[in-house]
Design brief:
This protein has helices spanning about 1-15, 20-40, 70-85, 100-110, 110-120, 125-135, 145-150, 165-175, 185-195, 250-265, 270-280; strands spanning about 45-50, 55-60, 65, 95, 95-100, 160-165, 210-220, 225-230, 235-245. The chain is built from eleven helices and nine strands.
């Protein structure tokens, strides 16, 4: 059973003696994530960034993956940045709905129509892409509306509307910083991400109930993605990106990888995880 195998390597990883230095610990994490990917069919891209120290781990971190609906974070950030500049208002209306209501539906329920209405208000995908460039972000691009993306011939290796895992955590770092959004706008976006209703079997799946998660999922046929922030005990924040295409074991693999990252960066103890895993058998 492949899922049980994933638990086995995770337990082996967490049972290792304590590392003397964090970089060595994170190097071991990368090795275990690579082992997970090797044991499961498909193409995996993973990145995690400690927002306080800048420590980063990745697996295929420079490989482009579809963003699917994870790109909606960039749409929200672009709109909120224009609100901060006084160019737009959250009460602006289109199709009888306020921008605030559209944004909430876009992030919490992944509403595609709401997304395209916001993109239309912004002047098109090029505006979002330009916002990314303004903040020095490369290897991430927004080329089409959601309607255009869904109507196109499916190609999971198309560079349009793609991001590398490293670029995605770079976007999350920009949003979490002090230059892209004002504190109120940043807090609003993170609150929406904390209420994301899609993908309960993704990065939230094995994390303790006390963990704070602010995320956005993305799904296409043959592809799943989940990106966002994990807050560890004590307030340490980690930006994470999980992309997977092909194969048949994507959700369990991503859930297990998320828990490995949570623990390696300083989350709860191996003993707690061992008890939780034992209860699943």
């Amino acid at each position: 059973m492949r899922f049980v195998g994933l638990f086995a390597w995770l337990l082996a990883f967490l049972a290792q003696p304590a590392w003397a230095e964090a970089p060595q610990k994170l190097q071991m994490l990368e090795q275990r994530l690579a082992a997970m990917a090797a044991e499961n069919p498909g193409d995996y891209g993973i990145a995690a960034l400690d927002l306080a120290t800048g420590q980063t781990i990745s697996l295929n971190g420079q490989e482009a993956f579809p963003m699917a609906s994870t790109m909606k974070i960039a749409v929200a950030a672009t709109y909120l940045a224009q609100v901060d500049l006084g160019q737009r208002s959250l009460e602006d209306r289109i199709a009888g709905t306020t921008a605030l209501s559209l944004m909430d539906a876009m992030i919490t329920r992944s509403d595609n129509r709401a997304t395209d209405l916001l993109i239309s208000m912004l002047g098109g995908p090029a505006t979002v892409d330009s916002w990314l460039r303004t903040h020095g972000l490369t290897d991430i691009r927004v080329d089409r509306t959601i309607a255009q993306l869904l109507s196109a011939r499916r190609d999971l290796w198309d560079v349009r509307d793609s991001s590398t895992p490293t670029a995605m955590v770079g976007l999350l770092r920009v949003i979490d910083g002090d230059t892209a959004l004002k504190p109120a706008s940043r807090a609003m976006l993170l609150d929406m991400m904390s209420r994301c209703r899609t993908g309960s079997n993704r990065i939230r799946g094995l994390l303790p109930s006390t963990a704070r998660v602010e995320n956005k999922t993305g799904t296409l046929s043959g592809y799943t993605g989940d990106v966002g922030y994990l807050t560890l005990p004590g307030g340490r924040r980690i930006a994470v990106a999980f992309f997977a295409r092909g194969g048949s074991n994507r959700p369990p693999g991503r859930v297990t990888a998320a828990r490995a990252i949570y623990d390696a960066f300083g989350g709860e103890t191996y003993a707690g995880l061992r008890s939780m895993v034992a209860s699943t058998h």
